[in-house]
Protein backbone atom coordinates (compact mmCIF):
# COMPACT_ATOMS: atom_id res chain seq x y z
CA UNK A 1 0.00 0.00 0.00
CA UNK A 2 2.82 2.42 0.88
CA UNK A 3 4.47 1.80 -2.50
CA UNK A 4 1.24 2.75 -4.34
CA UNK A 5 1.10 6.07 -2.49
CA UNK A 6 4.69 6.80 -3.46
CA UNK A 7 3.99 6.00 -7.12
CA UNK A 8 0.79 8.09 -7.10
CA UNK A 9 2.59 10.99 -5.39
CA UNK A 10 5.52 10.88 -7.82
CA UNK A 11 3.14 10.64 -10.79
CA UNK A 12 1.15 13.64 -9.60
CA UNK A 13 4.35 15.58 -8.87
CA UNK A 14 5.71 14.76 -12.35
CA UNK A 15 2.43 15.86 -13.96
CA UNK A 16 2.54 19.18 -12.06
CA UNK A 17 6.16 19.79 -13.05
CA UNK A 18 5.36 19.06 -16.72
CA UNK A 19 2.36 21.46 -16.68
CA UNK A 20 4.39 24.23 -15.03
CA UNK A 21 7.23 23.68 -17.52
CA UNK A 22 4.84 23.87 -20.49
CA UNK A 23 3.30 27.07 -19.13
CA UNK A 24 6.72 28.60 -18.46
CA UNK A 25 7.88 27.75 -21.98
CA UNK A 26 4.69 29.26 -23.41
CA UNK A 27 5.10 32.50 -21.45
CA UNK A 28 8.82 32.82 -22.14
CA UNK A 29 8.75 31.82 -25.84
CA UNK A 30 9.84 34.77 -27.99
CA UNK A 31 7.04 36.62 -29.71
CA UNK A 32 7.28 36.91 -33.48
CA UNK A 33 6.87 40.44 -34.68
CA UNK A 34 6.61 42.12 -38.04
CA UNK A 35 8.68 45.22 -38.81
CA UNK A 36 6.95 48.58 -39.14
CA UNK A 37 5.55 49.11 -42.64
CA UNK A 38 7.31 51.56 -44.94
CA UNK A 39 5.57 54.87 -45.59
CA UNK A 40 3.88 55.46 -48.96
CA UNK A 41 3.29 59.20 -49.30
CA UNK A 42 0.14 60.15 -51.21
CA UNK A 43 1.01 61.87 -54.49
CA UNK A 44 -1.25 64.24 -56.35
CA UNK A 45 -3.83 64.70 -53.62
CA UNK A 46 -5.84 67.62 -52.32
CA UNK A 47 -5.51 68.10 -48.56
CA UNK A 48 -8.39 68.88 -46.22
CA UNK A 49 -7.45 69.69 -42.64
CA UNK A 50 -9.83 68.40 -39.98
CA UNK A 51 -9.94 69.22 -36.30
CA UNK A 52 -11.95 66.88 -34.10
CA UNK A 53 -12.49 65.92 -30.48
CA UNK A 54 -12.66 62.73 -28.41
CA UNK A 55 -16.46 62.60 -28.37
CA UNK A 56 -16.76 62.64 -32.16
CA UNK A 57 -13.91 60.19 -32.68
CA UNK A 58 -15.40 57.82 -30.10
CA UNK A 59 -18.58 57.79 -32.17
CA UNK A 60 -16.59 57.03 -35.34
CA UNK A 61 -14.60 54.27 -33.61
CA UNK A 62 -17.78 52.73 -32.16
CA UNK A 63 -19.44 52.77 -35.57
CA UNK A 64 -16.40 51.11 -37.19
CA UNK A 65 -16.15 48.44 -34.47
CA UNK A 66 -19.92 47.76 -34.58
CA UNK A 67 -19.61 47.20 -38.33
CA UNK A 68 -16.68 44.81 -37.78
CA UNK A 69 -18.54 42.99 -34.96
CA UNK A 70 -21.43 42.20 -37.32
CA UNK A 71 -19.03 40.13 -39.40
CA UNK A 72 -17.78 38.41 -36.24
CA UNK A 73 -14.28 39.81 -36.74
CA UNK A 74 -13.84 41.65 -33.43
CA UNK A 75 -14.97 41.49 -29.84
CA UNK A 76 -13.15 44.35 -28.19
CA UNK A 77 -13.87 48.02 -27.51
CA UNK A 78 -11.75 51.15 -27.85
CA UNK A 79 -12.44 54.46 -26.10
CA UNK A 80 -10.63 57.79 -26.22
CA UNK A 81 -10.44 59.48 -22.85
CA UNK A 82 -7.26 61.12 -21.52
CA UNK A 83 -5.62 57.99 -22.95
CA UNK A 84 -6.66 55.38 -25.50
CA UNK A 85 -8.35 52.50 -23.66
CA UNK A 86 -8.69 49.01 -25.15
CA UNK A 87 -11.08 46.57 -23.44
CA UNK A 88 -11.47 42.90 -24.26
CA UNK A 89 -10.89 39.43 -22.94
CA UNK A 90 -8.28 36.77 -23.59
CA UNK A 91 -8.44 32.99 -23.22
CA UNK A 92 -6.43 31.60 -20.33
CA UNK A 93 -6.88 27.86 -19.93
CA UNK A 94 -10.63 27.31 -20.30
CA UNK A 95 -11.66 30.76 -19.03
CA UNK A 96 -11.86 34.19 -20.63
CA UNK A 97 -10.21 36.91 -18.55
CA UNK A 98 -11.13 40.59 -18.97
CA UNK A 99 -8.37 43.07 -19.62
CA UNK A 100 -7.94 46.80 -20.03
CA UNK A 101 -4.93 48.30 -21.77
CA UNK A 102 -4.23 52.02 -21.80
CA UNK A 103 -2.06 53.71 -24.40
CA UNK A 104 -0.54 57.12 -25.04
CA UNK A 105 -1.15 58.02 -28.71
CA UNK A 106 1.47 59.74 -30.83
CA UNK A 107 1.06 61.10 -34.35
CA UNK A 108 4.17 60.24 -36.34
CA UNK A 109 5.78 62.42 -39.02
CA UNK A 110 4.55 60.04 -41.73
CA UNK A 111 0.93 60.57 -40.60
CA UNK A 112 0.54 57.19 -38.95
CA UNK A 113 -0.17 56.68 -35.25
CA UNK A 114 1.66 54.69 -32.62
CA UNK A 115 -0.05 53.75 -29.36
CA UNK A 116 2.54 53.30 -26.61
CA UNK A 117 1.39 51.00 -23.83
CA UNK A 118 0.96 52.86 -20.56
CA UNK A 119 -1.09 50.66 -18.22
CA UNK A 120 -2.56 47.19 -17.97
CA UNK A 121 -5.21 45.44 -15.90
CA UNK A 122 -5.89 41.73 -16.42
CA UNK A 123 -8.51 40.48 -14.03
CA UNK A 124 -6.61 40.47 -10.75
CA UNK A 125 -3.42 38.99 -12.17
CA UNK A 126 -0.33 40.89 -13.27
CA UNK A 127 0.73 39.45 -16.59
CA UNK A 128 3.51 40.74 -18.82
CA UNK A 129 2.26 43.40 -21.24
CA UNK A 130 3.87 41.59 -24.16
CA UNK A 131 1.89 38.44 -23.30
CA UNK A 132 -1.44 40.29 -23.18
CA UNK A 133 -0.71 42.13 -26.46
CA UNK A 134 0.29 38.85 -28.13
CA UNK A 135 -2.83 37.11 -26.79
CA UNK A 136 -5.02 39.99 -28.03
CA UNK A 137 -3.27 39.92 -31.43
CA UNK A 138 -3.84 36.16 -31.71
CA UNK A 139 -7.41 36.20 -30.36
CA UNK A 140 -8.85 38.98 -32.53
CA UNK A 141 -8.94 39.69 -36.22
CA UNK A 142 -7.52 43.23 -36.31
CA UNK A 143 -7.57 45.08 -39.65
CA UNK A 144 -4.38 44.71 -41.70
CA UNK A 145 -3.47 48.35 -41.06
CA UNK A 146 -3.30 47.73 -37.28
CA UNK A 147 -0.03 46.09 -36.26
CA UNK A 148 0.31 44.86 -32.69
CA UNK A 149 3.94 44.74 -31.68
CA UNK A 150 4.15 42.90 -28.33
CA UNK A 151 7.94 43.11 -27.96
CA UNK A 152 7.87 46.92 -28.21
CA UNK A 153 4.61 47.17 -26.22
CA UNK A 154 3.01 49.31 -28.94
CA UNK A 155 0.21 49.22 -31.46
CA UNK A 156 1.10 50.75 -34.83
CA UNK A 157 -1.82 52.16 -36.81
CA UNK A 158 -0.89 52.62 -40.45
CA UNK A 159 -3.51 55.19 -41.47
CA UNK A 160 -2.05 55.34 -44.97
CA UNK A 161 -3.02 51.67 -45.46
CA UNK A 162 -6.55 52.12 -44.13
CA UNK A 163 -9.02 51.67 -46.98
CA UNK A 164 -11.65 54.38 -47.16
CA UNK A 165 -14.32 55.06 -49.76
CA UNK A 166 -13.29 56.99 -52.88
CA UNK A 167 -9.60 56.19 -52.27
CA UNK A 168 -9.45 58.81 -49.51
CA UNK A 169 -6.46 58.65 -47.20
CA UNK A 170 -6.01 59.97 -43.67
CA UNK A 171 -2.91 61.39 -42.03
CA UNK A 172 -2.73 62.15 -38.30
CA UNK A 173 -1.20 65.56 -37.58
CA UNK A 174 -1.79 66.09 -33.85
CA UNK A 175 -3.22 63.92 -31.09
CA UNK A 176 -3.45 65.48 -27.63
CA UNK A 177 -6.23 63.71 -25.75
CA UNK A 178 -5.74 65.64 -22.52
CA UNK A 179 -6.40 68.94 -24.36
CA UNK A 180 -9.02 67.28 -26.62
CA UNK A 181 -7.05 68.48 -29.66
CA UNK A 182 -7.10 65.95 -32.49
CA UNK A 183 -6.09 67.02 -35.99
CA UNK A 184 -6.07 65.01 -39.20
CA UNK A 185 -5.47 65.68 -42.86
CA UNK A 186 -7.82 64.05 -45.32
CA UNK A 187 -6.11 63.37 -48.67
CA UNK A 188 -8.33 63.20 -51.73
CA UNK A 189 -6.55 61.88 -54.84
CA UNK A 190 -6.75 63.89 -58.04
CA UNK A 191 -6.19 62.87 -61.66
CA UNK A 192 -3.83 65.57 -62.89
Automatic annotation (TrEMBL):
<keyword id="KW-1133">Transmembrane helix</keyword>
<dbReference type="InterPro" id="IPR018672">
    <property type="entry name" value="DUF2140"/>
</dbReference>
<feature type="transmembrane region" description="Helical">
    <location>
        <begin position="7"/>
        <end position="29"/>
    </location>
</feature>
<dbReference type="Pfam" id="PF09911">
    <property type="entry name" value="DUF2140"/>
</dbReference>
<keyword id="KW-0812">Transmembrane</keyword>
<keyword id="KW-0472">Membrane</keyword>
<protein>
    <submittedName>
        <fullName>YfaA</fullName>
    </submittedName>
</protein>
Amino acid sequence: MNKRWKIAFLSLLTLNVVIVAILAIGFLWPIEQEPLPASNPQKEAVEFHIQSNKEDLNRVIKSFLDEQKEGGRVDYNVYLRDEVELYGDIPIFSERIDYKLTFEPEALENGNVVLRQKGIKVGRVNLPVSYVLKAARDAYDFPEWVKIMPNDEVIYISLEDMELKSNLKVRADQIDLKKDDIQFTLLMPTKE
